[in-house]
Structures
1.
Amino acid sequence: MAEIILVRHGQANAQANDEAGYDRLSDLGRQQAGWLGAHLRDTNPHFDRVLTGTLTRQADTARGMGYDITAQDPRLNELSYFALAHALEDQHGIPAPRDATEFAIHLPQVIDHWARDRLEGIPERFEAFAARIAEALDEACNAPGRTLIVTSGGVIGMALRHTLGLENGGMAKIMLQIMNSSVHRLEYVHDTLMLGAFNATPHLDIPDRAHARTFV
């Protein structure tokens, strides 16, 4: 059996309006990573390999958890949300969200237009994004032992789409619920990839850390 633990990065710069500006952990994001690392050390700390994408917020989360990174794989990088949002506004007149409520409506619209190939001039097509996540997961399934993957919400959403056979609308809803520093467990048994746990935050469940349960 192979076990894959997916972790979303800690809270990043939520005030950013482009990819580069977003790609750094906030003070709370660093604290979330530290708390998660302490929880893992107290429970089941060993991983046979630790993978991240090449994004700063992903690598800094893994290091903040106390792990050395085995390899950085660009296939584990997040979708280009800001580029997609700009294309959606320019080409279809759907403005970028101004708050969390609008974002909950906006993200499924982005995914829908992207998946139907209705956005031009974007960094990556939807099918290419889906293919690279599936490829990275398949490799992890064939690696023995436990693999820790520190990545981003869109990658985790696509991983669950791949695992559960979700429609794109269901994937978008899943993505909206993925918390910063949350833990998701996949198990590859009997030649089948199965979901063992979703969106766990045991390191944030004590009352005085309620403020740290963040989505953006």
Note: The chain has a mean pLDDT of 97.
2.
Amino acid sequence: MRVHVGCAMWAHTRWQGRFLPPSLPPGERLRAYASWCDAVEGNTTFYATPARSAVESWAEQTSPDFRFVVKLPKTVTHERRLAGAGEELRSFLWAIEPLESRTHALWVQLPGSFGPGDLGTLAAFLRRLPTAHRYAVEVRHPAFFEDAGCARDLERVLGRVGAEWVPFDTTAFFQSPPTSDAERDAWTKKPRVPRRSAALTERPIVRYLGRDDTERTVQGWRFWVERVAGWVREGRSPTVFVHTPDNADALPLARRFHDEVRALAPQVEPLPEPVPAEPPTLF
């Protein structure tokens, strides 16, 4: 059984020299990250479709069972709101082809203004997508979390095409006021919606936001450790992404989350051994 864990990125200046080697060339950074975690969020693709040659490098640096959850470009989801974006979508799909099986899901993150009245647009968009990929949808409109009827309507739309509903759990983060600059910035930007934890498919995806304080982050994810272990016992294969406002310790936190799940579900395979941040010495 596999539980995949990862972060919002595979390169971070605060990781260099602490968790990852300090002077890696761009073509080796993902390889080093992949020795710590076996999944990553593809957030950069939201801002621009990557060059196919860059995606080929991503594939070369990771094993076939590494999981990319790749976000669709904002031109498709936010600017065109899933309508009339065929050319942009085709360019994106062509660019990410080299990932092959590593593309765990294409991630349709929708703006907070995309509400229940837009479900027809979402349904039509999902029906037109190639069946070769899995799809995961993240919504932020409050009605999907506060109105049971709206939630059921969304689940029906997703269920027709086997798509997953991706929760971004920020409840632990918003339990008390921010205490750092990174937390204050996140306080104004992150969605504040109730926690949702029902899996629609055999491969649920969770995004969790903790705090910059490690122990508060760990305390806040207790619910998810138990839920993910339960999914494993049901035969599901979850992917969990651990965020903190500054992400300075997100790499070891993701591994700690994995360890806590394995303590409850020992059948889960261990993660690989990380590449050391510094080469071994003789003295």
Note: The first strand starts at residue 4 and ends at 7.
3.
Amino acid sequence: MIQKLISDIAHQTLTPISNLKIYGEILSEVSNENQEEISTILEQAEKLDFLIQSLVKLSRMESGIIAVHSEDTTIKQMLESIQQQFNVKVREKNITLSLCDTDLHVLCDSKWTVEALGNIVDNAIKYTACGGNVQIKVEQYSFFVKIDIIDDGIGIEKEEIPKIFGRFYRSLSVADQLGVGIGLFLAREIIQAQKGYIKVTSKRGKGSTFSVFLPIAKKE
């Protein structure tokens, strides 16, 4: 029943949201008037699309319809996928996205882990000023591999750090930015489902570091 409901929601909202985006783009191209209003419609349609897709993914995970299947995975391959995913965004903001070269392996579900890391990278790009830097570094520990996503963006107030992984939580300081407050919640759920965890260090105005710890893949 849950699976059917989720599928129905995703299917029934796909067409109207797509139509909103298409007609909004057409209006933007053919009309020189009301550009601000048209831009708002497109922005809200994009936000609604992201919200629906995120809720569908989250619901499928929480209901057990989609489960993570951990296996020996190369970190390099996941980072390359993330770089490809955000090529356009970093070019638009002239942000340098630096990836370390690594041959380390972790025990994870690569598809879901790329989703989680991508949500964190997306936030790093979003809250870093044009011309800024986002770095991804990797370090091996005894039982875990740490993946650091480091930015020199706006940072997070110390008292807000425990709240940022809450469902739909958004700081008032970023109210002007596009978002629905579910990306980090979904990221934490995915990482915890794989017996990993996330730590955050940040200073307002100095940037943030999101450290994702995943179980190391033991060699036979």
Note: The chain has a mean pLDDT of 85.
